[in-house]
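Tokens for chain A. Residues wanted.
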């Protein structure tokens, strides 16, 4: 038995692959284009492990995907492959359209051709699980009910628009062609191997380097925070028990404003790696807000709990402590991802703010 995992060298994808092999000996074929956020060092623990077959390539390469499907005969495809950073989508939306929309289309077409030719038992067991985001739902007013699976799509950034488009394609391929799909829409993930352009790892890395901690606007943008290990367990659960054609929202039940997240990181660093210069909170710097910044996201994850029995195991307090400690313990990994290209990106995104 085999899974085809796309984007399995990125943040969530690599955590899923590592988590999977902690639970199962089932083979994974891992297809990743290794763009700036894909990092094979995330998977160093699997070097020499015959269960893990890594292939560098693009989900939009139909010939390659067709060959992998024919050779390895997976029972499921789990699609993590995506461009995922809102700020990058504002600066360069084209890549987001190419990967998230056209790439998903190509992957769906390859999956449809493969699935259609399977024999009856394998065909009925096959699944295409598409991993998406709560950002497709748009922004919530303070006090408004959290996003449910039936909330209308109102994407507000090139990134969220491209993910909304991919979700619609997945839904259409199920309703038009019968492809057995599952979709998950998750809240903000955090944890090990998170590329340090996102809020939590950026704050940790900058604080340790004595650099400013850039907080957009007033810092009161609210997000629901989900520890990546909990997200992995949710995906395993949906793959095993989810109803074909359904969407499941995955959240951590941890709504917090960004500035509270930053201050929590500073407090933990003050405890775990004190600075001779005083509290890391001294580095907090408010910068100009990004265009179209959604004010609040919140996930109602009752459906996945009610129907599939899943709930997150980590509280925010336990998850953020594990995360900060991981970055302290893995300075070599951090140094390895802070290439010249990454430094150039940070300078370009924040210098004018």
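Reply:
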């Amino acid at each position: 038995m085999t899974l085809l995992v796309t984007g399995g060298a990125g943040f969530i994808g690599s955590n899923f692959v590592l988590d999977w092999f902690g639970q199962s000996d089932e083979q994974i074929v891992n297809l990743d284009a290794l763009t700036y956020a894909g990092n094979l060092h995330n998977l160093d623990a699997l070097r020499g492990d015959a269960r893990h077959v890594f292939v560098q390539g693009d989900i939009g390469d139909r010939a390659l995907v067709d060959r992998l499907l024919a050779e390895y005969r997976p029972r499921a495809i789990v699609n993590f492959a995506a461009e995922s950073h809102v700020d990058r989508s504002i600066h360069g939306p084209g890549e987001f359209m190419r990967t998230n929309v056209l790439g998903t289309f190509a992957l769906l077409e390859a999956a449809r051709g493969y699935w259609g030719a399977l024999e009856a038992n394998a065909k009925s067991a096959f699944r295409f699980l598409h991993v998406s985001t709560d950002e497709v739902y748009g922004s919530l007013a303070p006090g408004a009910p959290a996003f449910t699976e039936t909330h209308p799509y109102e994407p507000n950034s090139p990134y969220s628009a491209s993910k909304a488009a991919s979700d619609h394609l997945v839904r259409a391929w199920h309703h038009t062609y019968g492809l057995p799909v599952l979709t998950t829409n998750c809240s903000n993930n955090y944890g090990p191997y998170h590329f340090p352009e996102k809020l939590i790892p950026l704050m940790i890395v900058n604080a340790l380097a004595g650099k400013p901690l850039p907080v957009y606007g007033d810092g009161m943008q609210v997000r629901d925070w989900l520890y990546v290990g909990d997200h992995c367990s949710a995906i395993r659960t949906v793959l095993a028990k989810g109803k074909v054609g359904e969407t499941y929202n995955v959240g951590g039940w941890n709504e917090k404003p960004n500035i509270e997240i930053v201050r929590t990181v500073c407090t933990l660093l003050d405890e775990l790696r004190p600075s001779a210069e005083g509290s890391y909170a001294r580095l907090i710097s408010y910068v100009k807000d990004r265009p179209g910044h959604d004010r609040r996201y919140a996930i109602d994850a009752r459906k996945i709990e009610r129907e599939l029995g899943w709930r997150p195991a980590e509280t925010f307090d336990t998850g953020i402590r594990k995360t900060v400690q991981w970055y302290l313990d893995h300075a070599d990994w951090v140094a390895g991802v802070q290439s010249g290209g990454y430094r150039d990106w940070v300078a370009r995104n924040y210098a004018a703010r």
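The domain at 2-191+228-255+298-317 is CATH 3.40.50.720 (Rossmann fold). Residues 198 and 300 are 23 Å apart (CA to CA).
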